[in-house]
Amino acid sequence: MIAALAATLAPGGFEHHAEARDGGIFRDADRLHTRVIDGACIFLNRPGFAGGAGCALHLAAIDADESPLEWKPSVCWQLPIKVDWEQTADGTEVATVRRWTRHDWGAQGETMAWCCTEGTLAYVGDEPVVDTMGEALEQVVGTEVYVELRRRLAVE
Known about the structure:
This protein is an alpha+beta fold. Helix content is 37%, strand content 14%. The protein has helices at 2-8, 17-23, 56-63, 68-71, 74-78, 115-118, 129-132, 134-141, 143-153; strands at 36-37, 40-41, 44-45, 54-55, 81-87, 93-99.
């Protein structure tokens, strides 16, 4: 799916279009990891790129009036959200929402390009994550938990 979507990206919206065309978008035969160009995912358009900074897939989804969750690898749209599920003695499930760390991915975490979670701009913003990442949160925890999370975080 990611390869098919990448093939639809125009050079004007995908900074590393030529690299993708010439060498593909994956760095392994299993197609589990995207290529890294200059220390980051091949889809990362750098600041100053005329087509817009950020994930080329994300930007293209927005341009197509579609959800970026439908265009991006799940690992990308889930970050930085991590949910730990714990079953209590009475059978209730408790969801704890937190940030991902390399440790969460085991040995694979050491080989990932973590530009979106380890920079100085990670985990900062003018609006609450429950608002800005609401769609991803709901997808990860389910509608029932998301509604309860919003209820608990509502300012009274």
